[in-house]
Amino acid sequence: MISTTAMGSMARSLLRALLAVASLLLAACGGGEQVASGGIVGTGISISSVGTVSAIGSVTVNGIRFATTTAAVSVNGVAAPESALRVGMVVTVQGTVLPDGTATATSVDARTEVKGIVTGVDNAARAFTVLGQRLRTDQLTVFSGGTFDTLVNQYVEVSGFRGAPGELLATRVEISPTITPGAALEVTGTVSAFDPIAKTFAIGSQIVDYSQVGSAFLPPGLGNGIVADVRGVTVSAGGRLLANDIRVVPTAVPGSDNSKAEIEGVVTDFASLASFRVNGQAIDGRSATVTGGTVAMLGNGAKVEVEGQLAQGVVVAAKIVIEQEAEIVLDARVEAVDSTGITLGGQRFTVTATTQYEDRSAAAVREFSIAAIRVGDRLSVHATRGATGLVATRVVRLDTSAPADAGIAGRAEGVITDFVSVASFRVAGRAVNAGSAKFVGGVAAELANGRRVEVEGVLAGDVLMATGVTFTPADTTPTTPDSLEGAITEFVSPARFKVAGQAVDASGAVFDGGVAANLANGRRVSVKGRVTGGVLVATKVEFQSDPPATTLEVEGAITDFASAASFKVGGQAVDASKATITSGTLADLANGRRVGAVGPVVGGVLRATKVEIKDAPELAEASVKGTVTDFVSVVNFKVAARRIDASGAKFENGTAASLANGRKVEIEGRLSGEVLVANKVSFQ
Q1: What is the pLDDT of residues 453-465, one digit of tens each?
Q2: pTM for this one?
Q3: Hey, is 5 helix, strand or coil?
């Protein structure tokens, strides 16, 4: 990564060069004429920028802040207000950049690549499947309405970058807390297996049936290799998406020759530095300066940002930035902040024009940026370690008692009411969606009005997206008080606030770990009492302890190894002498081994509580959850696009003979290469 100063210097140099070219063109054409073919309008330079939204207010894409006051904003081709734009969305911005670096957008178009139900989750690869597409996530993926752990069986809208056919790097995942019958299904990708007789084709492993689309409404040129956007509302019993609308998606960056272009995305079709594609756009990088890594790191699957000029449909790159995964995650309170960086946990993080910002605190500032951060704020910062120090790639503000960068945790306990389906019922007045939950003491089919349960999960607005549901004994007396746990929101007074979305009156409660005066938004509490008229009248309120002041997570290769109590990861000193080791033992720690370590920082040393050895896949525990596909035999089938061998597995709620395409299962086991060797298969 590069600093803001360096980025600004390079941007100004490129602008001066482009303006020099513009001056020559203007001189050749006569004094004051505007040269449309050169992309020059007055003293500004036309620009097309494709990438993720990293900050709102106006909108920042690829490090450039575009004013959007007069811009035409659209989402999936439909006009929308600027407020519809969100951090993590992939957008195409067209506008003008002035010599002083200020930029104005004339249009901003945001698009989703996939809409549908999540049919599988691969925890080991942090990937999931929707409509035959394998969707990878990374540390910059923004989840809204839930977390990775609440994905399976949920309806999602995904923005991202297309990579290999049938694969997408998700940049934003919108999880709907309720599934509306007949909700739109949509998939975008490269057409293959095109059959005009059967009227079918494939996008990834998803078969599309377009027999219901009249020939007059088919886009010209539909065939293999075309990028198409397919929409429908039904998947047939055979797993085919029944299309009702098909559109060809242009892959070329809009703009004329000599106009500036910036593209963020995943490299595909890599032949050489002179010939590859990003988001389908042809790139010539022979004259480019490569930063963030080496030329050898460029290849299919690499995430990059390209800056250059359009020339006959090809972006001639002046600069290629390789965007590497964050190596460090620090959760701590801000000790100092200025316009160029943040200090927390005794370490300074430089921010750049491409740093991503999100506010998950009770303040929920939409236009959150470095300017809104204050000393004492709790932040979760993802960073890479560059030549000049730590560079923040993502900054998330959290409430003081929230779980680490994983959404707002919630809990509800009580009797089920208003039961509609596994994805729609209430517990202690709290709306619950348990479509992704793991069940203890019962199964999903036993959910019904009157059953008493304990629910844990993540809040999505007013809905608790359950990760776990525990059935409590049926003979529990009705006098047992209801209880819940979570962060306080909408605080007005001790008699009027909410926890996990449930209205609470604690005016007559006994307090533990604090007093009524300590009640405030963001404070995490456990509340016990009884729901009366939709309000939980608390008899006891217990304040939960705040998280450790500084929690650091690092990942990378071990260096400077002296002992388990003294080595480095990503330049960070680590003491793992008292850590829990997974996927190996303390004896496996050595220079060159790739590990992930997490724990508090004391005196500049990460006192690891947990160390996971990352480069021993044959030992790594893994699990997947979803629908069986590509079934050949018990030793050869897939779940969430992960190959499974269940020949030695223990089966629950079924047998090996019950395995078949379409069956929903949860599988636990160990990875052997890319194959998950199952030791347990649970039928859902």
Answers
A1: 999 888 776 788 8
A2: 0.80
A3: helix
When divided into structural domains, the chain yields a total of 5
> Which pair of tokens denotes residue 185?
């299904």
Dihedral sign for Cα atoms in the order 207, 212, 213, 214: positive
Q: What is the CATH number of the domain that holds 674?
A: 2.40.50
Distance between CA 276 and CA 269 in Å, rounded?
A: 5
Distance, CA of 156 to CA of 114 (rounded, Å): 8
Please say which residue of 248, 273, 288 terminates a domain.
Answer: 248
Residue 671 belongs to domain spanning:
621-683
The pLDDT-based confidence of 18 (bands split at 50, 70, 90) is very low
3-state secondary structure of 640: coil
Residue 466 inside a domain? The answer is: yes
Q: Is the dihedral of CA 557, 563, 568, 574 positive or negative?
A: positive
Closest listed residue to residue 332, CA positions, set 321, 316, 320, 348:
348
Tokens of 221: 């040129």
DSSP secondary structure of 565-581: TEEEETTEEEE-TTPEE
Indicate whether 189 and 153 sit together in one domain.
Answer: yes
Asked if 165 and 237 sit in the same domain, the reply is yes
Spell out a b/e string for 50-73, using b for 16 or more CB atoms within 10 Å of the CB, else e.
Answer: bbbbbbbbbbbbbbbbbebeebeb
Q: Which two tokens stand for residue 284?
A: 């010539």
- The amino acid that residue 348 corresponds to is R
Query: If 0-12 CB within 10 Å is exposed, 13-18 middle and 19+ buried, where does residue 181 land?
Result: exposed
